[in-house]
Amino acid sequence: MVQIAIMGYGVVGSGVAEVIQTHKTSLKSHSKNVIDVKYILDLRKFPDSPFADCFTDNFSDIASDDEVKIVVECMGGLSPSYEYVRDCLLAGKSVVTSNKELIAEKGAELLKIAKEKNVNLLFEASVGGGIPILRPINQCLAANNVLEIAGILNGTTNYILTKMINEKTSFEQALKQAQELGYAERNPDSDVKGYDTCRKICIMSSLAYGKHIYPKNISTEGIENIELSDVEYASGAGYVIKLIGRTKKINDDMLDIAVCPMLIKKDHLLASVNDVYNAILVKGDATGDVIFYGRGAGKLPTASAVVADVIDCVKHISARKYLYWEDSSNEQLIEPDDSKSRFYLRVESDDIANALNSLEKLLGKFNLVTSDNTTAVIITENEIKICDMRSALSKLENIGVNIKAKIRLADF
Amino acid sequence: MVQIAIMGYGVVGSGVAEVIQTHKTSLKSHSKNVIDVKYILDLRKFPDSPFADCFTDNFSDIASDDEVKIVVECMGGLSPSYEYVRDCLLAGKSVVTSNKELIAEKGAELLKIAKEKNVNLLFEASVGGGIPILRPINQCLAANNVLEIAGILNGTTNYILTKMINEKTSFEQALKQAQELGYAERNPDSDVKGYDTCRKICIMSSLAYGKHIYPKNISTEGIENIELSDVEYASGAGYVIKLIGRTKKINDDMLDIAVCPMLIKKDHLLASVNDVYNAILVKGDATGDVIFYGRGAGKLPTASAVVADVIDCVKHISARKYLYWEDSSNEQLIEPDDSKSRFYLRVESDDIANALNSLEKLLGKFNLVTSDNTTAVIITENEIKICDMRSALSKLENIGVNIKAKIRLADF
After folding, report:
1. Looking at A93, A106, A163, A200, which residue is catalytic?
2. Measured by CB atoms within 10 angstroms of the end CB, which terminus of chain A is less buried, N or C?
3. What is the pTM of this model?
4. Residue A220 neighbours by CB under 8 Å, 6+ apart
């Protein structure tokens, strides 16, 4: 029998307890062991829960109990999750977590402790919910150079964009619907501004390239400025707009990582990923494009990924899984200004003919999506550096051209 | 250093050697060991190969060399692959194979030997080429009841159907193009008649449900009778036709497995899987739908999956991976006749009004896709057992209605 503790009995934590209870037989046959929940850490009491006897509000019950070999962290946030996870690892316990903020901020430090203590720190559920993605990346790494990772990593923003694309709902209305359905928090910044996507692309990139990438070093743009008109113009030109987290290997030393809305060709599989679903594209030099799709969040999908990690810990109770990256000061990231892309632009001007003329002079050839007396929508033909785009747009503003929208094109 | 042998230097075998050579550094860092190719078994000589010194045409060189710990089998076919793999396992060597025929026919027997000898038998590349699918299925099993697995598992037939769907090419023309491009063999039966798809769904089902499923027990229908007109009628009704291998859990004891063309709603992600790409849907009770997409065949994708397995063997050189199923007499399969489905039907008759009348009497309500004086195309509203459909169609034939096409609808 292996005794475990669950820290946090919210959506994911209670899901973990539920999956462990409802899948007892298969858990036993797969882990070759009985998994027993000894503690659940939560300040609240749940007298009607089948686990009522397991509750404690005292972390040291768990930390000091040598019988507890595996601790599941589902509290979320950085504190006290960080301190608790660190102390569990230091006490020689393996840890499974679904906490993307924790891994994105403290992954390297915690993996180092896990290595020194010869225990496992697993976090499959932190990216893509129920989609197996970190293991496959880790697996395919050895026989592949990973050239690019790109994903629709946040269900809330994808739900909002899907509403805008398919039902011509405005951003504000779609966000309100997402909140009513419980997909979006009352304070939606973490989703809508791209922070959640950023954490997830940082975790995948850290794993794929072996060095910790810190979210604060990634240029991160959300979807709060996407207007319905841009969704419609993009559609007319054969594109959908999706919030993408993307890492490209520039050369052996450098990575280009960005989080921002991007135009995706409608015939690309990622363009068909709708509602709260997530999808992640991994491009290897040997495998080519591989895509993983599924529910990126939700109680049971996330819980089942956590439980799969728990089983892996049980199977590797005395041997470590190889899942590791080093700390880094992120010198491997190119300057965000040096990132290149094609662009979608919507401009307004009293003199559209002149504006289009200047656009061509400054940005080279483009495809004209639409224009009338006051508005023009174009897609550049060439890739342009962010800094060059900025200086071109500032010149345009100086001659009375208003830049109403500027969105990157995906290059996958 | 771990010494390995590669049996068969065709497309996949030479790809394995290439990936091992071109990814030396990452192989070393991931396997914590140096992988050295000691033998390559092939009747041909390759004097210009960087591995020229490794070639042998004598299997016993490999079987009797105790330094060889891992053997990669890429010969294909059943004999002598089966005897060689069996002898390698009996000699205490781990085996990695890309050979789906071997695993679909002899998996249970070989896994048993591997277990007894405490070595590994891995075969990720046998399904989905470069797509990681067997590991994720194995991983998600413990925390999920797998309710359904359905996939586009054969690149050649998907290429042919894509040509028919997008370019209105006939089956015969599309097959010819596939042969010219090297996607289809001169004798295309294994692909076109569904045998290849059948082997792959058998392997995934054996793994997911723990008991060997033999291809001979699976009702298998290919795409050779799909006519362009059906592709077009289906498209008009909002569907595409794909060759699907599918396993459904009927209850705790019984499975419904089938290989046949199916109509898929155009807005389903699998409908957008084109050309030689593969995609596999796994429906878990906790994760919901998860889809894996990528190149299902080809030298480097397949080779990289083989090499990932080799690395896993190196890492588990003294510990076994848990990947296993028992032999079975396939009593867990329902009678193919009892399988239920909605159906697409195209019928011809001199008296279409009467034919439609009889169709409704025999099959219940249906959606009329199109009809004229001599032809009607319908999609049934209700699921009908195969045997009930057969007897209904025979009654229709008796009253002068010709059944020109009968295709199942996917229920995912």
Report:
1. A200
2. N
3. 0.96
4. A193, A194, A195, A197, A198, A259, A260
